[in-house]
Amino acid sequence: MQQKIRCCLSALGFILIFAETLRRVVADRLAHALSGLCCCCGLDSDTQTTLCSHCLAGLPRVRRACPLCGLSKESVSEGDSSDPHEQGPASVCARCLTQAPVFSLCRSAFAYSSPIDQLITDYKFNERLDIGAGLSDELGRVMETYYSVSEGSSGVNGKPSAVIATPLHPRRLRQRGFDQAQFIARRVARRLALPDLSKRVARIRHTTPQTETKTKAERQQNLRCAFEIKNRERLSGHSHVLVIDDVITTTATVSSLTTVLRDAGIAKVDVWGIARAELRSAR
Ligand SMILES: [Zn+2]
Ligand SMILES: [Zn+2]
Question: Which of 155, 234, 249, 269 could lock 258 by a disulfide, CB 3.0 to 4.6 Å apart?
Answer without folding.
Answer: 269
